[in-house]
């Protein structure tokens, strides 16, 4: 008898484990779309993305089923309120849907009754996304930095590895901040990041050789801050920023980050030489970036304002011609006069074909990721008179910022606080050959509820075509060195 | 054993009494401490499998933090802890085959652990050692279990268990695996040949090298901690440390390792009475030591009680605790009292009725504690500054771990700020805790806080000096309700800012209506501000809405102050002399209290 009970229990467990989602025979049709988390309805995705697992974010969902209709057939999935795909099945679906769409029919059971929600499409673009994205994971704190990671995620699956973890060299007595990791031209042969406070310096990984440098020399007003690695030469431009922050008593943006002084410097990695490019007391420069041909240096620049006038701080996009032979820069040229629009433009990024300028536009200030009104904008650099427009399909009513192009120029990655106004998450948007941007999608996770419970923000997403070639322990040894 | 005059029963009674003493100290005398440590300890759900295995002892930390949750009910958490100690002692007695004359010694590590909890004082708010409260207890329990098993095995069995202990223990228990390995080695009976020793030690050595090399190459340990001693409790912050508190753990380790030594020596001790007496003396010394170390600041317990009352909006309870304190309160207690009176709308009549002085907390080491780490974020919240409450909750949760206390404040501030998605996120996280899953913010609470939230946004920074910032910020706040204006008036009084007081009083009188007389403290302030002004004439002074009683009392105060100033050399001495009679007037505060930028 006891033996039979064991067998029965085991059989029931096996059966429940093998439970296959089925389309309900009876259901009512609902006109209103259901809230999905993440919202993957009508997005455009690359053919090499990890499964877009999602859940139905509504109270009282007892079960749900999604039927995926794709050119090669159909697939039915669903468990609880989760739609989770097997990686192999997902890859098969994407392979047969490149350049086409798959249609998701969604059913959910609520109070013992099944409902069918409006179907939605997921378009699979013909262009791939770079396989790796690196980011810093940081609690959205303001001055503490006990627990920071720089991570690398393969977007083709769910594998995330830590490139560096500041706890290794931290102690109960204190620690160090890490920030602004950057690579050269989507490759990982060259990489850098900064260490602040204890063990301060800039760590440079150059084709297997590691060095730690102090960039505050030769008249630099600070260490290097926002980096831009020249696309072909072993040179890095940094902004120098004397940065501080204050807090809003009631505004939902909570914090205001601003510079009291700022400029630009050039670091020659091979020769370990620092050269100040510009450091004018009445100008604040930030977020340098190179044109893909390496002939122009773009950056954001504003007239200096006191902290009390923070709402008057308006950044424009400027550029300077680079003389590669003499390592010198020409005079500053206005690219986009955001101040004339009463706005502030930061984080310029030039598309790999050199045709487009992608940036963030907000009402004021430099650190738009804390400005709920900040949106992504694009300007066509091929036109004689430059005008810009918002990337409406990618934007939200909350802050978007810190964006980058993919190496093929067909994708953008950016941070957004659209989920809850506090924690940044990563989003990708397709930029098609007609210059149109498509609805952005959130970085997929194995557990669709992961980002809801995740207590860190994503920072500085950088795309690369290959994984990083060093280990956290090797980097930590260099950080620890004098 | 011969010469035995003290029976097994007597020893049993001594052990039982010791256990009762420990329980009473922990559960009865430190119930508020137990509640607070669970509220400020990292939530167990913040660990994931990856982080558990990323450094030695991660699993022990998780188990410890999970058990710490039980202190939500101090009797439950405290009793579980005492039970774990009792079972540990019982198994250690068995493992070491201690004669009853020596069994009392097993209580010394327990007394050390008790002291490590009860003596912490204000360190509880800035402790960075994961699983400080239950972690060592869990480790001791596992060591005792392993020792009990070890003592029952033969030579080969002991070799295998020792190797497994070192390999698994290093991963699961951290530094306590090393302590346990030493303990097991001391239990080992003497081996006759080198080969037997090799059978015992070589697998252990191989296991040790395997465990250490795994961590050295693959995980994210703190390099400053030696791997074999990883996670030993440190009572340290960048500005201060307490070696005294760390020594307690040294006593725990030493007294534990003493047991196998006693096991070997007990056969040579013939007199039971002598051994019992010696052990009892040792235990008494341990108890006395722990008692001497015991942090007796009554303000500390009152402060913990007030913090909990503020959390639960039990304002009258908070005020009653404040009334009952026997020594000068901390400044944080004064601020909590003000927040309670603000919520009750009684700041105007009672603010100066309590002890209005206050200073830094008194500690047995000079701990630079900041109120930002304890009650200040809640004070910000109840005074209508949710962004600052959120900011400090975030900073603290990053620095000291995400605890239920900070999580609830995240949730509350998100609700008050109208950030519904964010509130839902924190609610989902609260649901993963054992006892805070049902936490809700009532509509009454939202309304009580929102009446103090004005639309007046200012970009500023408190620089860590919360009281000074609140005074500067709130004295000019433009509230649209009486209770809010009481806050503005109160902080302008604390600031001695006649201008801010005048502006707030105008609005207050408009809202109050002209027929109402001013509260006595406002009359006192009006008089002292007027007297301090060089521009006021007699007629204007006479026309101010100040009662005759207040005027005549002020005259008496001035006369007494002048007399005292003639007799005493320092202003502090004058203030002290006048405090008994005038300590609850605004005049005394105005003239003698000058310590608002405290900590």
Output the keywords.
A: 482 residues, mainly beta, six-stranded mixed β-sheet, 4 helices, 34 strands, B: 599 residues, mainly alpha, 1% strand
Give an account of the 3D structure.
- The complex is a heterodimer of chains A (482) and B (599).
- Chain A has 482 residues and is mainly β.
- Chain A has four helices and 34 strands.
- The termini of chain A are far apart.
- Chain B is mostly helical.
- Classes of the chains: A mainly beta (482), B mainly alpha (599).
Q: Biggest sheet of chain B: strands side by side, in what order?
A: 1-2
Query: What is the SS-derived class of chain A?
Result: mainly beta
Number of H- or I-type helical stretches of chain B: 29
The total beta strand count of chain B reads 3
Instruction: List unreliable stretches of 5+ residues of chain B.
Output: none
Bulk shape of chain A: globular
**Main sheet properties of chain A:** 6 strands, mixed
> Class by helix and strand content of chain B?
mainly alpha
Q: Ranges of chain A with pLDDT <50 over ≥5 residues?
A: 13-18
Topology:
The complex is a heterodimer of chains A (482) and B (599).
Chain A: H1 2-17, E1 28-29, E2 36-37, E3 43-45, E4 54-56, E5 61-70, E6 73-77, E7 82-83, H2 87-97, E8 101-110, E9 113-124, E10 132-138, E11 149-154, E12 160-165, E13 176-184, E14 187-197, E15 201-206, E16 209-213, E17 224-229, E18 235-248, E19 255-268, E20 273-278, E21 283-290, E22 296-303, E23 315-323, E24 328-329, E25 333-336, E26 344-350, E27 356-362, E28 375-380, E29 388-390, E30 400-405, E31 411-416, E32 425-430, E33 441-442, H3 450-453, E34 457-464, H4 472-480
Parallel strand pairs in A: 1-9, 3-9
Antiparallel strand pairs in A: 2-4, 4-7, 5-6, 5-8, 8-9, 10-11, 10-34, 11-12, 13-14, 14-15, 15-16, 17-18, 18-19, 19-20, 21-22, 22-23, 23-24, 23-25, 26-27, 27-28, 28-29, 30-31, 31-32, 32-33
Chain B: H1 8-28, H2 31-40, H3 49-53, H4 58-68, H5 74-95, H6 107-118, H7 132-151, H8 155-173, H9 175-187, H10 194-218, E1 236-237, E2 240-241, H11 243-265, H12 272-293, H13 298-311, H14 315-324, H15 331-344, H16 347-350, H17 376-382, H18 386-400, H19 404-416, H20 420-430, H21 443-450, E3 459-460, H22 466-474, H23 482-495, H24 498-512, H25 520-532, H26 538-543, H27 548-567, H28 571-582, H29 586-592
Antiparallel strand pairs in B: 1-2
Helix pairs in contact in B: 1-5, 1-6, 2-5, 4-7, 5-7, 6-11, 6-12, 7-8, 7-9, 8-9, 8-10, 9-11, 13-14, 13-15, 14-15, 17-18, 18-19, 19-20, 22-23, 23-24, 27-28, 28-29
């Amino acid at each position: 008898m006891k033996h039979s009970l064991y067998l029965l229990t085991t059989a029931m467990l096996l059966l429940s484990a093998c439970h296959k989602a089925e389309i309900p025979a009876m259901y009512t049709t609902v006109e209103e779309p259901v809230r999905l988390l993440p919202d993957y309805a009508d997005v455009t995705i690359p053919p090499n993305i990890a499964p877009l697992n999602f859940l139905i974010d509504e109270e009282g969902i007892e079960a749900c089923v999604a039927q995926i209709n794709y050119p090669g057939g159909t697939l039915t999935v669903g468990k609880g309120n989760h739609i989770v795909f097997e990686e192999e099945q997902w890859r098969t679906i994407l392979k047969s849907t490149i350049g086409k769409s798959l249609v998701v029919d969604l059913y959910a059971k609520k109070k013992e009754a099944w409902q069918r929600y409006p179907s939605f499409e997921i378009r699979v673009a013909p262009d791939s996304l770079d396989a790796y994205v690196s980011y810093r994971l940081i609690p959205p704190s303001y001055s503490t930095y006990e627990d920071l990671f720089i991570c690398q995620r393969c977007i083709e699956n769910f594998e995330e590895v830590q490139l560096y973890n500041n706890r290794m060299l931290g102690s109960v007595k204190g620690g160090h901040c890490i920030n602004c990791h950057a690579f050269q031209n989507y490759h990982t042969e060259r990489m850098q990041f900064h260490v602040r406070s204890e063990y301060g310096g800039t760590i440079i990984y150059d084709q297997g050789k590691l060095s730690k440098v102090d960039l505050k020399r030769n008249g630099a007003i600070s260490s290097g801050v926002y980096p831009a690695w020249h696309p072909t030469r072993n040179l890095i431009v940094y902004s120098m920023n004397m940065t501080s922050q204050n807090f809003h008593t009631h505004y939902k943006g909570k914090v205001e980050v601003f510079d009291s002084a700022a400029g630009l410097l050039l670091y020659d990695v091979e020769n370990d030489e620092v050269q100040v490019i510009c450091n004018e007391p009445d100008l604040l420069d930030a977020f340098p970036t190179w044109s893909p041909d390496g002939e122009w240096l773009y950056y954001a620049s504003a007239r200096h304002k006191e902290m009390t006038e923070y709402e008057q701080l308006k950044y424009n996009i400027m550029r300077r011609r680079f003389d590669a032979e003499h390592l010198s820069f020409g005079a500053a040229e206005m690219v986009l006069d955001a101040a004339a629009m009463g706005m502030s433009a930061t984080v310029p990024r030039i598309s790999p074909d050199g045709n487009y300028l992608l940036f963030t536009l907000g009402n004021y200030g430099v650190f738009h990721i804390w400005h709920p009104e900040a949106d992504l904008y694009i300007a066509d650099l091929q036109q004689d008179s430059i005008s810009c427009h918002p990337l409406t399909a990618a934007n939200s009513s909350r802050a978007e910022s810190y964006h980058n192009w993919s190496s093929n120029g067909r994708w953008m990655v950016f941070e957004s606080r659209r989920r809850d106004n506090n924690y940044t998450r990563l989003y990708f948007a397709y930029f098609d050959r007609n210059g149109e941007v498509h609805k952005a999608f959130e970085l997929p996770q194995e557990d669709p509820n992961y980002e809801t419970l995740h207590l860190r923000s994503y920072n500085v997403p950088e795309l690369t075509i290959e994984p990083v070639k060093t280990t956290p322990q090797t980097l930590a040894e260099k950080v620890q060195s004098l | 054993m011969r010469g035995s005059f003290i029976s097994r029963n007597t020893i049993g009674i001594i052990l039982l009494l010791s256990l009762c003493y420990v329980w009473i100290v922990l559960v009865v005398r430190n119930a508020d401490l137990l509640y607070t440590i669970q509220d400020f300890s990292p939530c167990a759900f913040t660990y994931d499998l990856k982080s558990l295995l990323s450094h030695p002892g991660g699993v022990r930390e998780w188990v410890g933090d999970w058990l710490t949750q039980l202190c939500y009910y101090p009797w439950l958490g405290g009793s579980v802890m005492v039970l774990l100690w009792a079972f540990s002692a019982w198994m250690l007695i068995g493992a070491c085959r201690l004669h009853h004359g020596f069994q009392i010694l097993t209580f010394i590590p327990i007394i050390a652990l008790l002291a490590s909890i009860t003596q912490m004082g204000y360190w509880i708010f800035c402790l960075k050692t994961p699983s400080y409260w239950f972690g060592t207890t869990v480790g001791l329990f596992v060591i005792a279990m392993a020792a009990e098993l070890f003592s029952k095995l033969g030579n080969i069995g002991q070799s295998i268990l020792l190797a497994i202990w070192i390999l698994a223990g290093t991963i699961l228990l951290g530094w306590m695996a090393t302590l346990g390995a030493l303990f097991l080695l001391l239990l080992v009976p003497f081996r006759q040949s080198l080969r037997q020793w090799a059978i015992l030690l070589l697998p252990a050595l191989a296991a040790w090298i395997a465990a250490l090399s795994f961590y050295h190459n693959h995980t994210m340990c703190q390099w400053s901690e030696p791997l074999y001693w990883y996670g030993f409790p440190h009572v340290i912050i960048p500005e201060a440390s307490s070696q005294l508190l760390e020594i307690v753990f040294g006593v725990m380790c030493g007294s534990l390792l003493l047991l196998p030594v006693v096991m070997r020596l007990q056969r040579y001790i013939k007199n039971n009475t002598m051994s019992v007496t010696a052990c009892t003396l040792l235990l008494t010394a341990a108890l006395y030591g722990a008692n001497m170390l015991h942090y007796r600041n009554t303000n500390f317990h009152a402060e913990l009680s007030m913090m909990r009352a503020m959390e639960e909006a039990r304002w009258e309870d908070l005020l009653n605790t404040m009334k009952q304190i026997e020594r000068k309160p901390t400044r944080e207690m004064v601020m909590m009292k003000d927040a309670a009176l603000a919520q009750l709308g009684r700041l105007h009549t009672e603010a100066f009725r309590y002890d209005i002085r206050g200073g830094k907390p008194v500690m047995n080491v000079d701990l630079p504690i900041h109120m930002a780490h304890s009650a200040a974020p809640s004070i910000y919240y109840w005074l209508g500054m949710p962004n600052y409450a959120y900011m400090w909750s975030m900073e603290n949760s990053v620095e000291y771990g995400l605890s239920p206390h900070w999580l609830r404040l995240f949730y509350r501030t998100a609700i008050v700020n109208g950030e519904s998605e964010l509130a839902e996120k924190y609610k989902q996280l609260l649901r993963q805790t054992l006892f805070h899953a049902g936490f809700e913010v009532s509509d009454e609470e939202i309304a009580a806080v929102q009446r103090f939230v004005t639309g007046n946004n200012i970009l500023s920074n408190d620089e860590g000096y919360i009281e000074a910032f609140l005074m500067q910020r709130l004295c000019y706040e433009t509230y649209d309700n009486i209770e809010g204006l009481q806050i503005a008036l109160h902080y302008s009084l604390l600031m001695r800012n006649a201008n801010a007081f005048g502006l707030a009083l105008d609005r207050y009188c408009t809202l109050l209506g002209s027929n109402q007389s001013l509260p006595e403290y406002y009359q006192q302030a009006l008089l002292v501000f007027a007297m301090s002004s060089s521009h006021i004439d007699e007629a204007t002074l006479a026309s101010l809405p100040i009662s005759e009683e207040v005027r005549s009392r002020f005259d008496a105060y001035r006369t007494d102050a002048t007399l005292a100033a003639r007799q005493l050399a320092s202003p502090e001495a004058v203030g002290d002399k006048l405090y008994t009679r005038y300590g609850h007037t605004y005049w005394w505060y105005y003239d003698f209290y000058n310590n608002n930028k405290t900590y």
